[in-house]
Amino acid sequence: MSGGQGGGNSKDGIRQVTICVVGKSGAGKTTCIVRYVRGFFQDNLDPTVFDDYKCNFTSPRSGIPYSLKIKDTAGQMEYKDIRLLSYREANAILLCYGINDKNSLDDIRRDWYPELNQYATNALKVPITLAALKCDLRLEYTTPEDQSKLISTKEGKALAKEIGAQYVECSSKSDSIGVDSAFVKILTLLETPNNRRSQEESSSNPIVAFFASIRRFFQSRMTRS
User: Fold this and answer.
1) pLDDT digit string, tens, across residues 109-152
2) Straight-line distance from the first to the last Cα atom of the chain, in angstroms, rounded to the nearest whole number
3) Helix (H, G, I), strand (E, B) or coil at 55
4) Is 33:40 a contact under the CB 8 Å cutoff?
5) Distance CA 209, CA 202 (A)
6) Residue 34's closest CA among 90, 72, 91, 66?
7) pLDDT tens column, 27-57
8) Highest CATH level, class, for 10-195
9) Which residues, including other chains, have CB under 8 Å from residue 48's CB and lie 6 or more apart?
10) Domain ranges, ordered by start, for the chain
């Protein structure tokens, strides 16, 4: 499967898409994926080093059937080399944080976004959706003191705008703010014409990518002259 933006390849009329789920350990990434793929909430999961989940989904926007490969990546920085391998396949990135971790926005600015910017968004033009997880806590934390411990919607949207990402809120526990919205957002983003790349540019073949970059270089030189 080719990495990069463009919605993936098609097989027997079913579009193949790889979504790479990224974020700090403990943010709730694996719980989010399990809820989406298997349909139930599972707590106390072991930290992930690397795992793949697969499911089928039909876009409510376009009616297009999808075969999704969802790559659950390690949130620990010592596994960065393994995580980078996942970006090569990605058609989209779901960048996650838990709203109960006030330091996570700074982590995204300092660690996660620079990594994605270098290896995915700039290198492969892969779009990012920023997902605020554990949003059921907004209903559980009822006092102003408790609410102040959570990252607000306003803060999350501001960060998404800052890094050029789409924004979505969801919870693996709650049906009303369920995780489906995150994946619908991603597929809608991929189906938007302005977010597509040519097949040549999105190719994972390094030789094709090399010659495409040379062609763009000379085209830019000719335009300036």
Assistant:
1) 999 999 999 888 777 788 999 999 999 999 899 899 999 999 99
2) 38
3) strand
4) no
5) 8
6) 72
7) 889 989 999 998 877 676 565 657 899 999 8
8) alpha beta
9) 29, 30, 72, 73, 74, 75
10) 10-195
Q: How is residue 59 written in tokens?
A: 């876009």
**Residue reference for tokens 């409510």:** 60
24: Cβ contacts below 8 Å, ≥ 6 apart? 75, 96, 97, 98, 101, 104, 107, 112
Label residues 106-129 b or e (16+ Cβ within 10 Å = b). Answer: ebbeeebbebbeebbbeebbbbbb
Single-letter code of the amino acid located at 23? G
pTM, entire model: 0.78
- Bridge-partner residues for 153, per DSSP? none
**Spatial distance between the Cα atoms of 156 and 79, rounded to a whole number of angstroms:** 26
Strand partners, 167: 130
Angle, helix 29-38 to helix 180-191, in steps of 10 degrees: 80
* 99: phi then psi, degrees, rounded to nearest 5: -70, -10
Question: Could you tell me which of 117, 104, 102, 84 has the C-alpha nearest to residue 29?
Answer: 104
The separation between CA 79 and the C-alpha centre of its own chain, rounded to angstroms, equals 18
The most distant pair of C-alpha atoms in the chain lies apart, rounded to whole Å, by: 64
Pick the closest to residue 119 from 85, 94, 95, 96 (CA basis): 85
Give the mean model confidence (pLDDT) for residues 23-27: 88
